[in-house]
Amino acid sequence: MKQAAATREKNQARQAKRDPEGVRRDILAVAMEEFSQNGLSGARIDEIAARTRTSKRMIYYYFGDKEGLYQRVLEEAYAKVRGGESELELEGLDPVAALVKLCRYTFDHHRRNPSFIRMVMIENIHHGRHMQLSENIRGLNRLAIEALEAVLKRGQEAGLFREGLDPLELHWQISALSFFNVSNAATFSFLFGDALFTPDGQETLSGHVADMVLRYVRVEHGRPGA
């Protein structure tokens, strides 16, 4: 058995040498599932190693330790949502269309990536301790606020959006509406039924989130800047 294990580890090492980035991606993808399902304390490195056909030694080689892997997974989760935002090309749209697209992207990204929501919830349980150690996450999220600020500014210059809007506060509002849809889906559907969580229900909610945000930011008819 020891010889078989040694042979397997040699094969894994050769594979990692040929495609180290591929091995890292596989580990991060499986680790995302493991951490989001079981939390930091409940996740098992042995399980991640088995599912990726690597070894604990290789995982620790790439990521340092369990908390290092968790932090890297958290960074990947934020990089995915922020990367998707950067691909929306909001600067090429009129301000109203840009804001609608951003709202609907956020809502749809979150509902299609419940593991992201669970990771954020888990990190809040840990009081944001690992996030505070990551310059990458802070930088990524600053870009999100700057992109929203640019949309609001264009809308204000065109006389479409009212003055006095805070992009950080608006980001909070969009995130809150989109987050609750996933974080409380199990309890909400148990209490009130699952009509809102069918494909049609989710599409309707996505549109309504965008409508609510637009009504909040737009200049009221007959009251510019109200």
TrEMBL record:
InterPro entries: Homeodomain-like_sf, HTH-type_TetR-like_transc_reg, HTH_TetR, NicS_C, Tet_transcr_reg_TetR-rel_C_sf. It comes from the Bacteria. One of its GO terms (molecular function) is DNA binding. Residues 1-21 are annotated as: Disordered. The keyword Nucleotide-binding does not apply. Residues 7-21 have a biased composition (Basic and acidic residues). Keywords: DNA-binding. The keyword Isomerase does not apply. Residues 44-63 bind DNA. Residues 21-81 form the HTH tetR-type domain. Pfam families: TetR_C_29, TetR_N. PANTHER family: HTH-TYPE TRANSCRIPTIONAL REPRESSOR SCO4008 (PTHR30328:SF54), TRANSCRIPTIONAL REPRESSOR (PTHR30328). This is TetR/AcrR family transcriptional regulator. It comes from Shinella sumterensis.
